Amino acid sequence: MLEISELYKSYEHQPLLKGISFSVGPGETVCLLGASGSGKSTLLRIVAGLETPEAGRLCWDGEDLAPVPAYRRGFGLVFQDYALFPHLNVFENVAFGLKMQNLPSGTIKLRVTNALEQVNLSGFEGRDVTDLSGGEQQRVALARALAPRPRLLMFDEPLGALDRNLRERLIDELRRILHTSRIPAIYVTHDQEEAFSLADRVLLLHEGQIVRDGTPAEVWREPGSAWAANFLETGNIFEGVLRPDGVVESPWGALRLPCRHPHKPGDRVSLLLRPAGARVLSAEKADGRKAEDEANSLVGRVADVVFRQDRFKVTLTNGLYFYLAEAPQPGAEIHLEIPPSAIQCLA
Fold first, then answer.
1. Can you say whether residue 221 is alpha, beta or left, with left for phi > 0 and alpha for psi between -120 and 50 degrees?
2. If 0-12 CB within 10 Å is exposed, 13-18 middle and 19+ buried, where does residue 62 land?
3. 145 near 93, Cβ under 8 Å?
4. Which residue, of 198, 226, 254, is where some domain finishes?
5. How far apart are CA 306 and CA 224, in angstroms?
6. Res 129 pLDDT > 50
7. C-alpha to C-alpha distance for 169 and 206, rounded to whole angstroms
8. What average pLDDT does this structure show over 291-320?
9. Which residues lie across from 11 on neighbouring strands?
10. Distance between CA atoms of 8 and 44, rounded to whole angstroms?
11. Partner residues linked to 204 by β-bridges
């Protein structure tokens, strides 16, 4: 399907994309996830044929796309601002690209009807797009992209202008549409909830490079770097020093954890401490712990407690936070036992 190899692009004499390589397989949805300025939208525009890379190759089923203009690539693009024609009704907006292909009127009508049915807008053909809600307008934009039966769908922050509840509903509908249509897709977003809900694979972009590539579960479970863990808000991130006995000495206490990186005693390591899994010890149990059990035992004073659905987010005065089943009193000193599975060495 789509193969991208070693793409480079600069903006105002500064490197923006630095050797980007990835592929999109049949029926696969790939999400490009990253902060503003990471190069996501520029990369999408290069794939669409709206911009030209300075180096690298784009191929579709082995065919070099460089000489192929945007209108002949057979790709559909959905923007955040919908880009609908306000003087045309719903039918005319969805039919616009089909008319540009000089298709018979019967074929156009059938394609428009099918596309609107896919996005749950059957019966909206004669409505003015200016009378539609934001969510309905975005569905019209999606129907317009689906109607020509594109080889690839591309989305550039398509839900960014919608409120949270509507965005969540459209994420569910969009996932259904992509899975049933089996059209491969590239989805650009800075919102990890969107990416993790929609993607078969997530590509994390940072400073013009892909720093992590994997399924949503793989990326969440092993972000791979301090930057990725911080961007995904996976937990507490800090540094420690590796001792000769394999224990990491951190500002918050000694931590014993598995690590696959080739560290030596004295090396500084970045750690991810997941907020879930910690257990509060009673004063008696904390006092009775043996010396060899002191690793993975933290002591802190409670600064803040916030109820989060079925648990409490407890923030300590040292800045660490944990999710606990019971709420301690603010100001209380608590002893926490941290399971090794909740600690991860990032680098």
1. alpha
2. exposed
3. no
4. 226
5. 29
6. yes
7. 29
8. 86
9. 14
10. 13
11. 33, 212
- Of 295, 288, 293, 248, whose CA–CA distance to 272 is shortest? 248
Which tokens is 310 given? 């079925």
Q: Which two tokens stand for residue 148?
A: 């020509």
Q: Domain check: are 289 and 179 in the same one? A: no
* Structure-token match 């049949």, residue found: 26
**pLDDT at position 57:** 95
**pLDDT tens profile 32-83:** 999 988 899 999 999 999 999 999 999 999 999 999 999 899 999 888 777 8
Q: C-alpha distances in angstroms, 134 versus 137, 159, 161, 166, 238?
A: 5, 9, 8, 9, 41
On whether both 208 and 243 belong to a single domain, the answer is no
> What average pLDDT does the segment 146-160 reach?
90
Backbone angles phi, psi at 285, to 5 degrees: -70, -35
The verdict on 95 and 244 lying in the same domain is no
Q: Do 168 and 311 fall into the same domain?
A: no
Give the CATH number of the domain where residue 328 resides.
2.40.50.140
Q: What pLDDT digit, counting tens, does each position of 75-121 carry?
A: 998 887 778 899 999 999 999 989 988 899 999 999 999 999 999 89
Residue 159 and residue 30 share a domain: yes
Cβ neighbours around 27 below 10 Å, total = 14
- Split into its structural domains, the chain has a count of 2
Per-residue pLDDT of 209-235, as tens digits, reads: 999 999 999 999 999 899 999 999 999
The reply to whether 321 and 178 lie within a common domain is no
Distance between CA atoms of 259 and 272, rounded to whole angstroms?
A: 12
Q: Tell me the DSSP string of 257-316.
A: ----S---TT-EEEEEE-SSS-EEEPHHHHHT--GGG-TTEEEEEEEEEEEETTEEEEEE
Residues 140 and 20 in one domain: yes
Residues near 120 by Cβ (< 8 Å), separated by ≥ 6? 139, 173
Residue 122, judged by CB atoms within 10 A of its CB (0-12, 13-18, 19+), counts as exposed
Residue 340 clears pLDDT 50, i.e. is over it: yes
Tokens 């972000």 belong to residue: 223
Single pTM value for the model: 0.87
